[in-house]
Write a structure and sequence with these properties.
The chain contains 15 helices and 14 strands. It has about 550 residues and is an alpha+beta fold. The protein folds into two domains: about 5-30 and about 245-360 and about 430-540, no CATH class; about 40-240, no CATH class. The radius of gyration is 31 Å and the shape is elongated.
Length: about 550
Amino acid sequence: MKVGSRFAALVRWPLRALLAAALLAAVPATVVAHPLGNFTINHYSGLRIAADRVTIDHVIDMAEIPAFQARQQIDRDGDGALSAAENEAYRAEACSMQARDLELSIDARPMALSVEASAVAFPAGVGGLETLRLNCLLSASLEPPIEPDSVLAFGDNSYAARIGWREIVLEGDGVTVLETTAERETRSDRLQRYPDDLLAQPLELREVSARVAPGGPALAPFVVPELASQDGGQASVPGGIAEATEIGALVNAPELTPSVVAGALLLALALGAYHALTPGHGKTVMAAYLVGTRGSARHAVALGLTVAVAHTLGVLALAALTTLAARVLPPERLYPWLGVASGLIVVGIGLYLLASRLSFLPIGRAAAQGGHAHGLGGWHTHEPTPPRPPRVDAGHDHAHGSAHDHGHGSAHDDEGERGHSHRHETERDPLRWRGLFALGLSGGLVPSASALVLLLGSVSVGRPGYGMVLVVAFGLGMALVLTGIGLVLVYGQGRIEQLLERLDRSSRVPNLARLAPLATAVIVLVVGLAITGQAAAQVL
């Protein structure tokens, strides 16, 4: 079989896997995350300042994960369904807590907030989960009334440790707002349509102040849409969340028939494959490692499986934390630390690779092994081997009296004029399996929120085992794509090495083949530092 046809046969199924996963990106995503992330708790406070009264339209929008946690608390009888009485008790208690966590003062005098009305709704989320929208109408009487040049201060301390959008809007009603640090109008339509240009860096307005004075146009009566309806308010779904999803329908199916289970498994597999193509999971590091160390097909398969297994175990552990200990350690606060750990693992691998590569450069080898130069410019180390008949090789300026191995970092002429290159096993694969597994661990250490949603969605309907199976299928989808990428790199590296050797023989680019492994070590180190720095910035 020709080399070209053999290469095509070897990479055919990985390429098909990659193509199938890429096609997922061309169709609407089955699981669409909350626009600000599945872990967020988002805040909106609309303040209306009158001469003798402050009214606050306070809204809390919980994404799927915190909403799942809240439902566990709301469902006091543990039957899996939320009754009208349970909803009423929750909204009264939750709004009272919000009133305590909001701070309002006029001219440094604290003002007590009271709850005028409340509503709670559970818009559809993803993966069979729901979000939660809490509306609290709060007010405070101002005695004495607003005076000329009064200073108002407001702060939102609720869910202080949770991440999310925080917006405060202030307007005067018969009062003139002279200056303020608050927004003058809502940017998110009261947490119903988040602006695309602020999704990466959500609004973070926790406290505001304003200088106000009596007098000004009166506004229309204050009406909160959710509180105006007779059913307690059916909140709309925030923009970016699908109204209904196929995976949610499969998770919540009344009966788990073979066709339903098969459909859910295939969909979870496809979601995992698609997720593996998104940024992350150490694909850049994996590419540098496999190419730089001349990885084999076994390495590629093991690396892909290690990432998938580590990711699956991480999802299961995070689900346990979300269900059992979220008050002690909110899951979203754990993610940056996992990112730091992942980055440090990659940094360690990069440093090890770099030290190993430097030892094969002429300076490192001369110092460590007492190497010597030959006429062709290569550096050699000598290991005793069984004797063979002496022979004078073309291209050398001396004859070898006994046989020995050559540890070259670059190609040279040997056996007449036929060029070849050879390396020590240590140079080809300095980390071996231990380093490869560490690299896989770093790629799967940060769990996917989508996989977590699948698991929690199943738990919410009383099917934890079903959810675990879906998470395993999700991980297998990741393994399929990552292994495919690895195999393409492994079987394509021969072409890369041929190109480097051709360039190496050119006087314009000398010793390029020798320096390529060193460059891959530097890439691994730089990527590790970038991952660590990005995650550390979130921690700090």
